[in-house]
Amino acid sequence: MTATVIDPLDELLADAFDGYVVRKDLATKFKGQYPVPTYVGEFLLGRYCASTDPDEIAEGLEIVQRLMSERTVRAGTQELFKARARERGSVKLIDLVTTRLDAKTDAYLAELPSLQIKDVRISPELVKEHERLLTGGFYAEVELEYDAVIAQEKNGRPFGVAGLRPIQLSKRTALEEMAQGRARFTAEQWKAVLLRSVGFEPEALSERARDVLLLRMVPFVERNYNAVELGPRGTGKSHLYQQVSPYAHLVSGGKASVARMFVNNSNGQRGLVCQYDVVCFDEVSGVSFDQKDGVNIMKGYMESGEFSRGRESIRADGGMIMVGNFDVDVAHQQRVGHLFGPMPPEMRDDTALMDRIHAFLPGWDVPKLHAGLFTRHFGLVSDFLAECWHQLRFESRWNKVAPRLRFGGALSGRDMTAVQRTVNGLLKLLYPGGEQDIADEDLEWAVRIALECRRRVKEQQKRIGSAEFRNTHFSYQLGEDDVEKFVNTPELQSDDAIASDPLPPGQVWGISPGGQDEHAGLYRIDVTEGPGSGVRVLNNPAPRAFVESIKYAEQNLYAQALHLVGERDPRAHEFSVQLRAFDASRGGSALGVPALLALCSVLMGKSLKGGLIVVGGLNLGGGIDPLYNAVDVAELAIEKRAATLLVPISARRQMNELSDEMITRINLLYYTDARDALLKALVE
C-alpha cells in the first residue's frame, strides 16, 4: 500500500468523525478492479478501514479485498457462483438488484445482472420494504439460496433471495453527528472536506472548479432542484450521480420512458423521481421521451414537483439534472448559437423549460480528470455523507438569511425562486447544523454563485430572442447599508469594458460630472420596454439624483416625442431602467441626456454607436445643463477606453485645455440639443 502524508486537516477530520473517515485513494484502488460503483467499495472500507492507524488500515484493507474478491461477480465467473449456491445451499454476493412483478404467476422476480439471472424468487415483504427494487434497483449484499426440489419442477425457479442488505447507511443520528463535527472546522476547511469526500483534492483545483464541484452537490440536499451542466468531455460531470450516493440514479442517453420516470399507469408503480433524490440524464443530447407529451410532463414536474395520473396528483421531490458535452469550446458555442445548443431538439429552444432550470453550471471551468486531481487524503465515508445529504433535504437555511439580503429589480419570480434554492442548498452543504451562525462572506459566496448560474440561463433565453428575458442584470445588496452589487457570467464579454461593438438597444454609457461631494463617475444605463406606461427604476434603493435625471428624461421624451422617435407613442410603453455604477461615484446626477437617449434607443429598437460615452444633464424645459468640469470628464472617458465622447457644445472651449496626447486618443462630438445628440449617437 502506498504511503500518504497525513496533513492537519486529516488529523482534525479523523478526530471529529471517528469511524466515519476513509482514505479516499483506497476506494480508487478498487475502481476498475471490481464491477461495482465507488460507494460500494467505500461502504466496506468504512466498515473495516475507518482509522488513521496504518496497521489497522492495512488489516482492514485485506478484509475488504477478500470480500470484494469473493462477493463480486467478474465476467466469466457467473457459473462458479451458481455452482457454489447449489453445493452450499446459498452464496453471498454484491450486485445491483432489480425486481419486477410477473403477472402470470402473481409473483415478484428479482434480476441479478452479474449472474445473468432474471427469474430469482423474492418475497413480497422484501419488495415492500425496499420499493426502489422496482425502479432501477440498488446495490446490495445479497444472500442467494438454491432449492434443488424447485429446480426439478417444470418451469421451476430454484434461485431465491434469502436476505438483502442495501449498501447505504440508515442511521437517524447521522446529521446530528455531522453538525457536531462540522463545528470544529472553518468554512474553507469544510469545503475542502466535502471535496475530498467525493474524491477530489482541492489544492489541485482552481477556485472556479471548486465552486462547480460544490454546486454539483446541491441537488442532493435540495428537493426538486433542477440543473444543467454542459461542458467538455472527461470532466466527471456524471461521477457524483453514479459513484458517490445510492440516492441518485443515472439515466444514460436514449429513450426515457414516461412510465419509468414518473408513473406506470397500468399498475400505479411510482417512477424514478419518486424513488430517488436525484435523477441525472447523462449524455442529455441523446435523450428523448417515448411519448409526445413526455417533455410537457417533465416541464410540469420541474415547475411544481407534481404530475398527474388520471385524476390523482402525485407529489415527488427527486431533482432533475441534465449533463452533456460541447463538441466545441464555450466561446465558439456562443458564437454559433447558445449554451443550450447540445440539448435534445425538443428542449434546446424551449424557453419555458429553461425557465424551470435553477442553475446552469459552467462545466468548462472543471479541468479534464487526471490522476493529479484525485485526493490521497482522508474524507467522509460516502454512505455517511449521502445519508446526511438525504436528511438535509428536509431542512432550510433560507429563512435564516433572507432578512439580510435584497435582490435587484431584474429578477423575476422564477429567478428569485431559483436563486433562493441554490443559496439554500449551498448553505446547507456548508452549515449542516442549523444552529450555526452563517457568516456574511459565506452568504455572499453562495449568493454570487446562485445569481451567476441563474443569470446564465436567462442570458441564453435572451439569445433565443424572447423579449421578456431582456433584462439580465442581476444584482443584490447584503446588510443594512451595503451597495448594490451586480453579478456577471464570466464567459460573456466583460460588462465593465467600453467595447467597440454597439450595445443592444436601450443601453448607453454615460459619465456623471459629479458635484461638490462626488467625483465624476462612469455609469451604464440599461432600459427595457414592455406593454404599459410610465418609467420604473429597478435599483433598490434608487439614488435620488438619478431618479431626478430619469424624471427629466421622461418628461422630455413625452414633450419632444415627434422630433425624437417619430410616430411611436412613448406613453403606450412601460420602461424599466437600471443604473450600474463602475466607480466610487454612486449618485448618478446629471445623467438626463444619456437616460433620454437610452429611452429613445429602446423605443426605436436601434443601438447607439459602439465605444460611445454620452455626457449631459437635462432640465424640464429641454435645455442642456452646463458642464463645468469638461476636462475631468474627457480624461475619465479616455481612461475607460471610450472611442467617442458626446458632449454639449457649451463645453467646447474647455476642451481646448486637454493635452495634445489626450486629444488624439478620443473623438469629441458636440451636440446642441437632445435631438442633435440622438442623431449623432445612433448607429448609421
UniProtKB/TrEMBL annotation:
Pfam families: BrxL_ATPase (PF13337), BrxL_N (PF20442). Residues 16-146 form the BREX system Lon protease-like BrxL N-terminal domain. Signal peptide: none annotated. This is Peptidase. It comes from Deinococcus soli.
